[in-house]
Amino acid sequence: MNPPAQPALRAVDSKYSEAEWKARVDLAALYRLFVKYGWTDLIYTHISARVPGEDNAYLINPYGLFFDEITASSLIKADWDGNVIDPPGGEYNEAGHLIHTAVLKARPEVNFVLHTHSRAGTAVSAMECGLLPLSQHSNLILDQVAYHDYAQVTSDEDECDRLQRDIGDKYLMVLRNHGLLACGRSAAEAFHFLYYMEMSCKIQVDVLASGKDYIVPDDDALASLAKYGAIGSEPKGERAWPGLLRGLDRQDPSYRT
User: Which end of the chain is more exposed for a tag (fewer CB within 10 A), N or C?
Assistant: First the structure.
């Protein structure tokens, strides 16, 4: 059995509840994992978390910090209307606010939302075929993938409505000509889905770039993998998450502060 991950350290400022502090630590960990796995795009993508026990509040990165600088206490707390609650005068990415609040408001079971502009993910987002059933990675998640067309946004309300309609009950979405979005009931589950999606996109780009004919598993194999990857009563990714945190702790535990 793996040893437990280091428990979330208490903030110096005790204004946070234990539940909010844990959400902050998990969210800060996700930002550091984006760096580790190469999913960053300077300061221009974002990850959010619902504030536990609050109906109208979420956490997101302060606009301008690189992801390896983000800590649990540096995160912005804002409400659905865009008002910054903490810290006073804090600034977030407006596009991030739109995307994340749209998903969090529409999906009460979702607590974390991740967005990337990775090279492979954006490449697949520009492919008319979308994500193909080329690998075990992709076939585990294909049933969870939705698509959102790129469009000139006329209003925040219109874009929120389109995002909510397009993601439906899925946990992954390809933002056409833009990037990827993943969500989860826990930080571990959101990371799980994004990891498999990013790997699927890398594999697809490699396969198509080879110019060789590719093989698709038979229908029975596809159905079996889809069943294994289906949403269950418990969030996915929980077994790997403590190890991911241990890796961050060995490298730089400052995300916990």
Answer: N
What's the pTM? Answer: 0.93
Please indicate, yes or no, if residue 1 is contained in any of the structural domains.
Answer: no
Residue 145 lies in a domain: yes
pLDDT of residue 209: 98
Q: Does residue 7 lie within any of the structural domains? A: no
* Average pLDDT for 239-255: 98
Three-class secondary structure of residue 148 per DSSP: strand
Q: Mean pLDDT over residues 196-215, rounded?
A: 98
- Is residue 3 a part of any domain in this protein? no
Q: Cα separations (Å) of 119 from 103, 125, 148, 197, 202?
A: 23, 10, 18, 13, 8
Q: How, if at all, do strands 46-50 and 57-60 pair?
A: antiparallel
Based on its alpha-carbon atoms, the radius of gyration of the chain, rounded to whole angstroms, reads: 18
- CATH classification of the domain holding 75: 3.40.225.10
Angle at 216 between CA 214 and CA 220, to 5 degrees: 165
Degrees, nearest 5: CA angle 110-224-238: 35
Q: Which amino acid is at 110?
A: V
* Amino acid 15: pLDDT: 84
Give residue 177's domain range.
Answer: 18-250
Which structure tokens are listed for 242?
């403590």
Q: Which residues does 112 contact at the CB level (< 8 Å), separation at least 6?
A: 26, 27, 30, 47, 48, 49, 50, 183, 184, 185, 186, 187, 189, 190
Cβ(71)–Cβ(254) below 8 Å: yes
pLDDT at 16 over 60: yes
Is residue 61 within 8 A of residue 45, CB to CB? The reply is no
Distance of alpha carbon 84 from alpha carbon 92, whole angstroms: 9
